[in-house]
Design goal:
By secondary structure, the chain is α+β, with helices and mostly antiparallel strands. The protein is 31% helix and 16% strand. It has 14 helices and 14 strands. It is globular, with a radius of gyration of 21 Å.
Length: 426
Amino acid sequence: MLRRTFIAVAALALTACASMSETPDAATSSAIEGFSGERLEALGLTLRAEVGVDRLPGAVLLIARNGKIVYQDTIGMQDPKAKTPMRADAIFAVASMSKPIVSVAVMQLVEEGRILLTDPVSKYLPALTGLKVGVEKTDASGRHTLDLVPPVREPTIQDLLRHTSGFTYGIFGQSLVKEEYRKAGVDGADQTNAEFIQKLATVPLMFQPGTTWEYSRSTDVLGALLERYSGEPLDEYLDRRILKPLKMYDTGFWVPDPAKQMRIAKPFEIDPESGNRTIVPDISKRPLLLSGGGGMVSTAPDYMRFAQMLLNGGELDGVRILSRKTVEYMTSDQLGDVRLVSAQRGAVYLPGPGSSFGLGFGVRIRTGEAVTIGSAGEFTWGGLYGTNFWVDPKENVVVVWMAQQVGGRTYYRTLIRDLTYGAMVR
Protein backbone atom coordinates (compact mmCIF):
# COMPACT_ATOMS: atom_id res chain seq x y z
CA MET A 1 0.00 0.00 0.00
CA LEU A 2 1.25 3.43 -0.91
CA ARG A 3 1.41 5.78 2.02
CA ARG A 4 1.63 9.52 2.24
CA THR A 5 1.26 12.02 5.03
CA PHE A 6 -0.95 15.07 4.63
CA ILE A 7 -0.24 16.65 8.00
CA ALA A 8 2.91 16.78 10.12
CA VAL A 9 1.75 14.05 12.48
CA ALA A 10 5.21 12.59 12.88
CA ALA A 11 7.13 13.81 15.90
CA LEU A 12 10.04 14.80 13.66
CA ALA A 13 7.95 17.10 11.55
CA LEU A 14 6.26 18.66 14.56
CA THR A 15 9.64 19.34 16.13
CA ALA A 16 11.40 20.59 13.00
CA CYS A 17 8.55 22.89 12.02
CA ALA A 18 7.82 24.09 15.54
CA SER A 19 6.64 27.45 14.25
CA MET A 20 3.57 25.85 12.73
CA SER A 21 0.42 25.48 14.79
CA GLU A 22 -0.69 22.00 15.77
CA THR A 23 -2.99 20.58 13.13
CA PRO A 24 -5.88 18.12 13.34
CA ASP A 25 -6.25 14.98 11.25
CA ALA A 26 -5.34 15.12 7.54
CA ALA A 27 -8.80 15.25 6.00
CA THR A 28 -10.07 17.93 8.37
CA SER A 29 -6.98 20.12 8.14
CA SER A 30 -6.69 19.93 4.36
CA ALA A 31 -10.32 21.00 4.12
CA ILE A 32 -9.91 23.80 6.66
CA GLU A 33 -6.81 25.16 4.98
CA GLY A 34 -8.42 25.09 1.57
CA PHE A 35 -6.70 22.03 0.07
CA SER A 36 -8.44 18.96 -1.27
CA GLY A 37 -7.14 15.78 0.35
CA GLU A 38 -8.04 13.80 -2.76
CA ARG A 39 -6.04 16.15 -4.98
CA LEU A 40 -3.06 16.05 -2.64
CA GLU A 41 -3.28 12.27 -2.85
CA ALA A 42 -3.09 12.58 -6.63
CA LEU A 43 -0.01 14.80 -6.26
CA GLY A 44 1.76 12.05 -4.32
CA LEU A 45 0.74 9.39 -6.83
CA THR A 46 2.10 11.51 -9.68
CA LEU A 47 5.47 11.91 -7.97
CA ARG A 48 5.70 8.19 -7.18
CA ALA A 49 5.03 7.46 -10.82
CA GLU A 50 8.11 9.57 -11.63
CA VAL A 51 10.15 7.46 -9.21
CA GLY A 52 8.69 4.30 -10.73
CA VAL A 53 10.08 5.11 -14.19
CA ASP A 54 13.49 6.14 -12.77
CA ARG A 55 13.17 9.83 -13.61
CA LEU A 56 13.27 11.01 -10.00
CA PRO A 57 15.55 9.41 -7.38
CA GLY A 58 13.68 10.78 -4.37
CA ALA A 59 12.37 13.97 -2.83
CA VAL A 60 10.82 15.66 0.19
CA LEU A 61 7.86 17.99 -0.27
CA LEU A 62 6.39 20.34 2.34
CA ILE A 63 3.36 22.57 1.81
CA ALA A 64 2.24 25.02 4.49
CA ARG A 65 -0.72 27.37 4.61
CA ASN A 66 -1.67 29.82 7.33
CA GLY A 67 1.36 28.68 9.32
CA LYS A 68 0.34 25.01 9.31
CA ILE A 69 1.90 22.08 7.48
CA VAL A 70 -0.93 20.76 5.30
CA TYR A 71 1.11 18.28 3.30
CA GLN A 72 4.34 16.43 3.91
CA ASP A 73 5.65 13.65 1.71
CA THR A 74 8.83 11.64 1.41
CA ILE A 75 9.17 10.10 -2.03
CA GLY A 76 11.52 7.47 -3.45
CA MET A 77 15.10 6.93 -2.38
CA GLN A 78 17.47 9.05 -0.34
CA ASP A 79 20.30 7.02 -1.92
CA PRO A 80 19.12 5.33 -5.13
CA LYS A 81 22.27 3.18 -5.41
CA ALA A 82 21.99 1.82 -1.87
CA LYS A 83 18.16 1.73 -2.07
CA THR A 84 17.89 3.78 1.12
CA PRO A 85 14.34 5.15 1.50
CA MET A 86 13.93 8.92 1.62
CA ARG A 87 13.44 10.39 5.07
CA ALA A 88 11.80 13.66 6.08
CA ASP A 89 15.03 15.10 7.52
CA ALA A 90 17.26 14.18 4.56
CA ILE A 91 20.00 16.74 3.91
CA PHE A 92 20.35 18.24 0.43
CA ALA A 93 22.87 20.41 -1.37
CA VAL A 94 20.65 23.43 -2.07
CA ALA A 95 23.05 25.36 -4.35
CA SER A 96 21.52 28.74 -5.24
CA MET A 97 18.94 28.52 -2.49
CA SER A 98 21.92 29.79 -0.47
CA LYS A 99 21.41 33.18 -2.13
CA PRO A 100 18.25 34.19 -0.21
CA ILE A 101 19.92 33.35 3.12
CA VAL A 102 23.02 35.42 2.36
CA SER A 103 20.85 38.25 1.02
CA VAL A 104 18.90 38.33 4.28
CA ALA A 105 22.20 38.54 6.21
CA VAL A 106 23.27 41.54 4.12
CA MET A 107 19.93 43.28 4.66
CA GLN A 108 20.35 42.85 8.41
CA LEU A 109 23.43 45.08 8.10
CA VAL A 110 21.43 47.58 6.04
CA GLU A 111 18.75 47.68 8.74
CA GLU A 112 21.43 48.28 11.37
CA GLY A 113 22.89 51.20 9.41
CA ARG A 114 26.22 49.43 8.97
CA ILE A 115 26.13 49.50 5.17
CA LEU A 116 24.03 51.30 2.55
CA LEU A 117 22.58 49.79 -0.60
CA THR A 118 24.12 52.67 -2.54
CA ASP A 119 27.63 51.92 -1.26
CA PRO A 120 30.09 50.85 -3.98
CA VAL A 121 31.27 47.27 -3.53
CA SER A 122 34.87 48.48 -3.53
CA LYS A 123 34.24 50.30 -0.23
CA TYR A 124 34.26 46.91 1.50
CA LEU A 125 36.33 44.91 -1.00
CA PRO A 126 39.06 47.30 -2.22
CA ALA A 127 40.45 44.69 -4.64
CA LEU A 128 37.38 45.37 -6.81
CA THR A 129 38.32 49.01 -7.36
CA GLY A 130 38.90 50.12 -10.94
CA LEU A 131 37.03 47.34 -12.75
CA LYS A 132 36.56 47.70 -16.51
CA VAL A 133 33.62 46.63 -18.69
CA GLY A 134 34.33 44.17 -21.50
CA VAL A 135 32.68 45.17 -24.81
CA GLU A 136 32.74 42.61 -27.60
CA LYS A 137 33.47 43.89 -31.10
CA THR A 138 34.02 42.29 -34.48
CA ASP A 139 36.87 43.54 -36.67
CA ALA A 140 36.98 43.67 -40.47
CA SER A 141 38.19 40.08 -40.68
CA GLY A 142 35.29 38.83 -38.58
CA ARG A 143 37.43 38.20 -35.52
CA HIS A 144 35.78 38.89 -32.15
CA THR A 145 37.73 41.16 -29.84
CA LEU A 146 37.18 42.47 -26.32
CA ASP A 147 37.57 46.16 -25.64
CA LEU A 148 37.88 47.33 -22.05
CA VAL A 149 36.04 50.55 -21.20
CA PRO A 150 35.49 52.36 -17.88
CA PRO A 151 32.20 51.73 -16.09
CA VAL A 152 29.69 54.58 -15.99
CA ARG A 153 29.55 53.90 -12.25
CA GLU A 154 30.82 51.27 -9.83
CA PRO A 155 28.70 48.23 -8.88
CA THR A 156 26.79 48.81 -5.64
CA ILE A 157 25.50 46.57 -2.85
CA GLN A 158 22.04 46.83 -4.42
CA ASP A 159 23.48 45.68 -7.76
CA LEU A 160 24.92 42.60 -6.07
CA LEU A 161 21.61 41.76 -4.42
CA ARG A 162 19.61 42.06 -7.66
CA HIS A 163 22.24 40.72 -10.13
CA THR A 164 22.81 43.97 -11.99
CA SER A 165 26.46 44.30 -10.95
CA GLY A 166 27.95 43.36 -14.32
CA PHE A 167 29.51 40.20 -12.88
CA THR A 168 28.59 36.87 -14.46
CA TYR A 169 29.18 33.11 -14.19
CA GLY A 170 31.93 31.78 -16.41
CA ILE A 171 30.47 28.29 -16.26
CA PHE A 172 27.15 29.11 -17.96
CA GLY A 173 27.05 30.15 -21.62
CA GLN A 174 29.66 31.61 -23.94
CA SER A 175 31.13 35.09 -24.31
CA LEU A 176 34.58 36.63 -24.37
CA VAL A 177 34.11 37.86 -20.80
CA LYS A 178 33.11 34.37 -19.69
CA GLU A 179 36.24 33.05 -21.35
CA GLU A 180 38.24 35.44 -19.19
CA TYR A 181 36.48 34.03 -16.11
CA ARG A 182 37.47 30.53 -17.12
CA LYS A 183 41.09 31.50 -17.82
CA ALA A 184 41.38 33.20 -14.41
CA GLY A 185 39.68 30.32 -12.57
CA VAL A 186 37.06 32.60 -11.06
CA ASP A 187 34.50 29.78 -10.78
CA GLY A 188 36.85 27.29 -9.13
CA ALA A 189 35.94 25.62 -5.84
CA ASP A 190 39.61 25.21 -4.81
CA GLN A 191 39.95 28.70 -3.37
CA THR A 192 38.89 30.76 -0.38
CA ASN A 193 36.50 33.69 -0.60
CA ALA A 194 39.46 36.08 -0.37
CA GLU A 195 41.22 34.29 -3.25
CA PHE A 196 38.01 34.34 -5.27
CA ILE A 197 37.83 38.13 -4.93
CA GLN A 198 41.46 38.49 -6.03
CA LYS A 199 40.71 36.50 -9.20
CA LEU A 200 37.46 38.36 -9.85
CA ALA A 201 39.41 41.62 -9.73
CA THR A 202 41.43 40.54 -12.79
CA VAL A 203 38.50 40.04 -15.17
CA PRO A 204 36.15 42.60 -16.79
CA LEU A 205 32.50 43.18 -16.07
CA MET A 206 30.14 41.77 -18.68
CA PHE A 207 27.74 44.73 -18.64
CA GLN A 208 27.63 48.28 -17.37
CA PRO A 209 26.48 48.13 -13.71
CA GLY A 210 22.76 48.73 -13.26
CA THR A 211 21.82 48.14 -16.89
CA THR A 212 21.32 44.38 -17.24
CA TRP A 213 20.11 41.41 -15.18
CA GLU A 214 22.81 38.76 -15.47
CA TYR A 215 22.84 35.74 -13.17
CA SER A 216 26.20 35.94 -11.55
CA ARG A 217 28.76 35.52 -8.82
CA SER A 218 27.24 38.58 -7.15
CA THR A 219 26.02 36.68 -4.10
CA ASP A 220 29.44 35.04 -3.72
CA VAL A 221 30.80 38.59 -3.59
CA LEU A 222 28.27 39.35 -0.84
CA GLY A 223 29.49 36.31 1.08
CA ALA A 224 33.08 37.55 0.80
CA LEU A 225 31.89 40.99 1.88
CA LEU A 226 30.25 39.53 5.01
CA GLU A 227 33.48 37.75 5.88
CA ARG A 228 35.56 40.90 5.36
CA TYR A 229 33.14 43.09 7.28
CA SER A 230 32.64 40.75 10.24
CA GLY A 231 36.08 39.17 10.47
CA GLU A 232 34.36 35.76 10.72
CA PRO A 233 34.21 32.83 8.28
CA LEU A 234 30.90 32.96 6.40
CA ASP A 235 29.59 29.73 7.93
CA GLU A 236 30.10 31.01 11.47
CA TYR A 237 28.60 34.39 10.68
CA LEU A 238 25.42 32.96 9.12
CA ASP A 239 25.12 30.42 11.92
CA ARG A 240 25.22 33.19 14.51
CA ARG A 241 22.96 35.70 12.77
CA ILE A 242 20.34 33.50 11.04
CA LEU A 243 20.62 29.72 11.38
CA LYS A 244 20.76 29.27 15.16
CA PRO A 245 18.16 31.97 15.88
CA LEU A 246 15.78 30.20 13.46
CA LYS A 247 16.68 26.74 14.84
CA MET A 248 17.92 25.64 11.42
CA TYR A 249 20.26 23.12 12.99
CA ASP A 250 20.77 21.01 9.85
CA THR A 251 21.68 23.95 7.60
CA GLY A 252 25.23 25.05 6.82
CA PHE A 253 27.94 24.49 4.24
CA TRP A 254 28.62 20.82 4.92
CA VAL A 255 27.58 17.98 7.24
CA PRO A 256 30.34 17.54 9.85
CA ASP A 257 28.49 15.10 12.14
CA PRO A 258 29.02 11.46 11.02
CA ALA A 259 25.59 10.55 12.38
CA LYS A 260 23.97 13.21 10.22
CA GLN A 261 25.97 12.15 7.16
CA MET A 262 23.72 9.09 7.01
CA ARG A 263 20.94 11.52 6.06
CA ILE A 264 22.64 13.01 2.98
CA ALA A 265 20.44 12.72 -0.13
CA LYS A 266 22.17 11.54 -3.29
CA PRO A 267 21.28 11.75 -6.99
CA PHE A 268 21.34 9.11 -9.69
CA GLU A 269 24.91 8.45 -10.80
CA ILE A 270 23.79 9.06 -14.38
CA ASP A 271 21.28 11.84 -14.96
CA PRO A 272 18.25 10.36 -16.76
CA GLU A 273 17.55 13.60 -18.65
CA SER A 274 21.01 14.29 -20.09
CA GLY A 275 22.67 10.89 -19.89
CA ASN A 276 25.68 12.57 -18.25
CA ARG A 277 27.30 11.69 -14.96
CA THR A 278 25.69 13.70 -12.18
CA ILE A 279 28.08 16.02 -10.36
CA VAL A 280 26.92 17.05 -6.89
CA PRO A 281 29.52 18.17 -4.31
CA ASP A 282 30.54 15.92 -1.45
CA ILE A 283 28.79 17.71 1.40
CA SER A 284 30.29 15.44 4.05
CA LYS A 285 33.52 17.48 3.89
CA ARG A 286 34.17 21.13 4.67
CA PRO A 287 34.57 23.02 1.37
CA LEU A 288 37.47 25.41 0.89
CA LEU A 289 35.15 27.94 -0.79
CA LEU A 290 32.23 28.92 1.43
CA SER A 291 30.12 29.98 -1.53
CA GLY A 292 27.45 32.48 -0.53
CA GLY A 293 25.87 32.02 -3.92
CA GLY A 294 25.66 28.25 -4.01
CA GLY A 295 27.43 26.33 -1.27
CA MET A 296 24.87 25.60 1.43
CA VAL A 297 23.07 22.44 2.54
CA SER A 298 19.70 22.16 4.26
CA THR A 299 16.62 20.06 4.92
CA ALA A 300 13.01 20.65 3.93
CA PRO A 301 11.93 21.40 7.56
CA ASP A 302 14.84 23.82 8.05
CA TYR A 303 14.22 25.72 4.85
CA MET A 304 10.51 25.81 5.62
CA ARG A 305 11.37 27.71 8.81
CA PHE A 306 13.41 30.24 6.83
CA ALA A 307 10.65 30.69 4.24
CA GLN A 308 7.92 30.94 6.87
CA MET A 309 9.95 33.65 8.61
CA LEU A 310 9.85 35.65 5.39
CA LEU A 311 6.11 35.10 4.93
CA ASN A 312 5.61 36.25 8.53
CA GLY A 313 7.33 39.53 7.72
CA GLY A 314 10.74 38.67 9.14
CA GLU A 315 9.78 36.90 12.39
CA LEU A 316 9.37 33.31 13.57
CA ASP A 317 8.68 31.92 17.06
CA GLY A 318 9.22 35.33 18.60
CA VAL A 319 12.63 35.75 16.94
CA ARG A 320 12.87 38.71 14.57
CA ILE A 321 15.42 38.39 11.77
CA LEU A 322 14.29 41.36 9.64
CA SER A 323 11.66 44.08 9.85
CA ARG A 324 8.39 43.71 7.96
CA LYS A 325 9.25 46.65 5.69
CA THR A 326 12.63 45.20 4.83
CA VAL A 327 11.06 41.92 3.71
CA GLU A 328 8.47 43.87 1.73
CA TYR A 329 11.26 45.82 0.03
CA MET A 330 13.37 42.72 -0.71
CA THR A 331 10.44 40.94 -2.35
CA SER A 332 9.41 43.86 -4.56
CA ASP A 333 10.37 44.54 -8.18
CA GLN A 334 13.93 45.91 -8.08
CA LEU A 335 14.52 45.94 -11.85
CA GLY A 336 11.87 48.05 -13.57
CA ASP A 337 12.83 48.57 -17.20
CA VAL A 338 16.08 46.64 -16.72
CA ARG A 339 14.20 43.36 -17.07
CA LEU A 340 12.80 44.44 -20.44
CA VAL A 341 16.18 45.04 -22.05
CA SER A 342 18.23 42.26 -20.45
CA ALA A 343 17.45 39.65 -23.12
CA GLN A 344 18.19 42.18 -25.84
CA ARG A 345 21.68 42.56 -24.41
CA GLY A 346 22.37 38.85 -24.54
CA ALA A 347 21.55 37.92 -20.94
CA VAL A 348 19.54 34.80 -20.10
CA TYR A 349 16.66 36.20 -18.06
CA LEU A 350 15.98 33.40 -15.55
CA PRO A 351 13.07 35.01 -13.66
CA GLY A 352 11.07 34.50 -16.85
CA PRO A 353 7.90 36.09 -18.25
CA GLY A 354 5.69 37.89 -15.76
CA SER A 355 8.48 38.01 -13.18
CA SER A 356 11.17 40.37 -12.01
CA PHE A 357 13.89 40.14 -9.37
CA GLY A 358 14.00 41.56 -5.88
CA LEU A 359 16.95 41.45 -3.49
CA GLY A 360 17.82 37.76 -3.40
CA PHE A 361 14.63 36.32 -4.92
CA GLY A 362 12.76 36.09 -8.17
CA VAL A 363 9.49 37.99 -7.68
CA ARG A 364 6.28 37.58 -9.65
CA ILE A 365 4.78 40.87 -10.80
CA ARG A 366 1.81 39.49 -12.76
CA THR A 367 -0.42 36.47 -12.33
CA GLY A 368 -0.46 36.01 -16.09
CA GLU A 369 2.37 35.79 -18.63
CA ALA A 370 4.30 33.22 -16.59
CA VAL A 371 4.24 29.58 -17.68
CA THR A 372 3.23 28.37 -14.21
CA ILE A 373 0.19 28.87 -12.00
CA GLY A 374 0.74 31.34 -9.18
CA SER A 375 0.02 34.78 -7.78
CA ALA A 376 1.39 38.25 -8.29
CA GLY A 377 3.57 39.05 -5.29
CA GLU A 378 5.03 35.58 -4.76
CA PHE A 379 8.80 35.16 -4.44
CA THR A 380 10.96 32.17 -5.17
CA TRP A 381 14.28 30.65 -6.10
CA GLY A 382 15.78 27.25 -6.76
CA GLY A 383 19.07 25.39 -6.83
CA LEU A 384 21.08 23.79 -9.61
CA TYR A 385 20.85 20.33 -8.03
CA GLY A 386 17.06 20.24 -8.05
CA THR A 387 15.74 22.08 -4.98
CA ASN A 388 13.16 24.86 -5.04
CA PHE A 389 10.95 26.95 -2.78
CA TRP A 390 8.33 29.63 -3.16
CA VAL A 391 6.27 31.87 -0.91
CA ASP A 392 2.83 33.10 -2.00
CA PRO A 393 1.74 35.90 0.37
CA LYS A 394 -1.63 36.30 -1.34
CA GLU A 395 -2.56 32.69 -0.54
CA ASN A 396 -0.46 32.54 2.66
CA VAL A 397 1.31 29.49 1.27
CA VAL A 398 4.90 28.25 1.50
CA VAL A 399 6.20 25.30 -0.52
CA VAL A 400 9.60 23.62 -0.18
CA TRP A 401 10.73 20.96 -2.66
CA MET A 402 13.96 19.10 -2.02
CA ALA A 403 15.43 16.74 -4.62
CA GLN A 404 18.84 16.00 -6.11
CA GLN A 405 17.83 15.79 -9.76
CA VAL A 406 19.86 18.16 -11.92
CA GLY A 407 18.45 17.45 -15.37
CA GLY A 408 14.79 17.52 -14.38
CA ARG A 409 14.84 20.53 -12.07
CA THR A 410 12.81 22.85 -14.33
CA TYR A 411 10.25 20.15 -15.08
CA TYR A 412 9.68 19.32 -11.41
CA ARG A 413 9.43 22.96 -10.37
CA THR A 414 6.65 23.43 -12.89
CA LEU A 415 4.97 20.12 -12.05
CA ILE A 416 4.94 20.77 -8.29
CA ARG A 417 3.49 24.25 -8.77
CA ASP A 418 0.71 23.04 -11.03
CA LEU A 419 -0.21 20.16 -8.74
CA THR A 420 -0.06 22.29 -5.59
CA TYR A 421 -2.30 25.02 -6.93
CA GLY A 422 -4.49 22.36 -8.52
CA ALA A 423 -5.11 20.95 -5.03
CA MET A 424 -6.07 24.36 -3.65
CA VAL A 425 -9.87 24.47 -3.82
CA ARG A 426 -10.44 27.66 -1.83
